[in-house]
Design a protein that fits this description.
The chain is α+β, with helices and mostly antiparallel strands and about 350 residues long. It is built from 8 helices and 13 strands. The chain starts with 5 loop residues before the first strand and ends with a strand. It binds (3R)-3-hydroxy-3-methyl-5-(phosphonooxy)pentanoic acid. Keywords: ATP-binding, Cholesterol biosynthesis, Cholesterol metabolism, Lipid biosynthesis, Lipid metabolism, Lyase, Nucleotide-binding, Steroid biosynthesis, Steroid metabolism, Sterol biosynthesis, Sterol metabolism.
Length: about 350
């Protein structure tokens, strides 16, 4: 007889990389050239519901009430993989029946999705989590599905400090994320400065490909990632904020230097981003030690890391400075202050 529909709802947070993933060695499977490291930001999340209908029909994806194009999208890639696995599993069982599975996704985020705030990481990790629950997939399969949707989504499967290993096995089985133990740092905060809510100029996939094809600095960056990850993890264990902050800013700047070394250049930062970079360095200098770090993904918005007791003072300082800046554009649109990890 016909099978009942299955429904699953999960809530999965975003993550922001401290050592960025940039460059794929396999485009179709989203396998990275370098290991990356991130912090999961618990209070910014996607709440995602997946309904699976065992019938023929069109898949649908709705994010914050808006229908998304599924044909040719990364969603379709994930859905097709699941159908392929299910077909394989069913082969022999009921060979005469093709596997008819229809997917329906609705997702709500508690932050602006278009702001380039790693919304796809939360979204695809949530979809993978639902798929695992409904189909009984292994953890490795869940990781594979999250990664197929968006590479960085593989890191949102865990909380705290998370490393995505590029993997060495030919079948990519070991290109998975792992959480760094004892990441409890209750006073650590992230501030996200939304400089521009617009869509990013180039998708990360297109940007990465162009960098791999044209940048001569990328190779050197990739050589340094493992060492930098180890340094940040060590600083994290020692609660050495300034050592950690220094490495975070260096990686962000190195990443954007590599983007600039791409031809034609990928210019993700704008004048406001650069003002924020300057402000952070001025503030740290004024303080006599590094108490705040910035990092920028493939877009102009800043994520600042700092401890709780620095938040208000920095905001007072920054808003005063930003208001004095000449262009009206330099107003930061929105500031989201968030706890990283409550586990
Ligand atoms: O997950 P993707 O394919 O959107 O790539 C993410 C790339 C960066 O956000 C720039 C870096 C990272 O590691 O998250």
């Amino acid at each position: 007889g016909r099978r009942e529909s299955r429904v699953c709802t999960v809530r999965v947070p975003i993550n922001i990389a401290l050592v960025k993933y940039w460059g794929k060695r396999d485009q179709t499977q989203n396998i990275p050239l370098n290991d990356s490291l991130s912090l999961t930001i618990n209070s910014l999340h996607a709440r995602t519901t997946l309904r699976v209908n065992y019938e023929i029909g069109t898949d649908s994806v709705k994010i914050n009430g808006k229908s998304q194009t599924v044909t040719g999208s990364r969603y379709q890639r994930v859905f097709e993989e699941v159908r392929r696995w299910e077909r394989k599993r069913k082969a022999g069982e009921v060979a005469e029946h093709p596997v008819s599975i229809q997917f329906e996704i609705t997702s709500e985020t508690n932050f602006p999705v278009s702001a380039g705030l790693a919304s796809s990481a939360a979204g695809f990790a949530a979809i993978a989590e639902c798929l695992q629950k409904i189909f009984g997939f292994t953890d490795s399969q869940k990781s594979q599905l999250a990664r197929l949707g968006s590479g960085s989504a593989i890191r949102s499967i865990f909380g705290g400090l998370v490393r995505w290993r590029r993997g060495t096995q030919p079948n990519y089985e070991d290109s998975i994320a792992e959480s760094f133990p004892s990441t409890h740092w209750p006073s650590l905060r992230a501030l996200i400065l939304v400089v521009d809510e617009g869509r990013k100029e180039y998708s990360s996939t297109d940007g990465m490909q162009r960098t791999v094809e044209t940048s001569t600095l990328l190779e050197r960056r990739i050589e340094c990632c493992d060492v930098n990850i180890d340094k940040i993890c060590a600083a994290f264990s020692n609660r050495d904020f300034s050592a950690m902050a220094d490495m975070i800013m260096r990686d962000s700047n190195n990443f954007h230097a590599v983007c600039m070394d791409t031809s034609p250049p990928l210019m993700y930062l704008n004048d406001v981003s650069r003002t924020i970079i300057r402000l952070v360095h001025v503030y740290n200098e004024k303080n006599g030690s590094t108490v705040i770090a910035y990092t920028f993904d493939a877009g102009p918005n800043a994520t600042l890391y700092l401890e709780e007791d620095t938040v208000q003072d920095f905001l007072d300082f920054a808003t005063k400075q930003l208001r004095f800046a000449e262009s009206a554009q330099t107003e930061v649109e929105e500031i989201l202050g968030h706890k990283l990890d409550e586990s």
